[in-house]
Amino acid sequence: MKVKIDIDCTPEEARRFLGLPDVAPMQEAVLRDAQERITAALAAMDPETLVKTWLPLGMQGWEQLQRAFWNGFAEAPAKRPQGSRGEGKERGDKETKR
Asked: What are the residue ranges in the chain where pLDDT is below 50?
C-alpha cells in the first residue's frame, strides 16, 4: 500500500508549521557585518599591497609548474624505450616480400 500526500506551501509556511525559528534577521545582520568588515579591510589596503600579498604565492606556483614541465620534457627522450619509433625503419619504408 502506498500513500502519497502533496503539500503545496511556501518555505515560510512550512517553517512556521514545523515550528522552526525565523533566522532571516540573523542572517541579514551577519552578512551586513561581514560586508562592513570586508569593505574596511579593502579600504585599508592599497592596490600595491594587495598585489604583493596575492602574487608571490601564485607566481611561485607557476614557476614550479613551469620547472616541472621543462624537467619532464628534458627527461622524456632519456626515458623512451628502445625500438619505440620503428627501430631501423623509416616511416615511408615498406617491407618487401621475397
From this structure: none
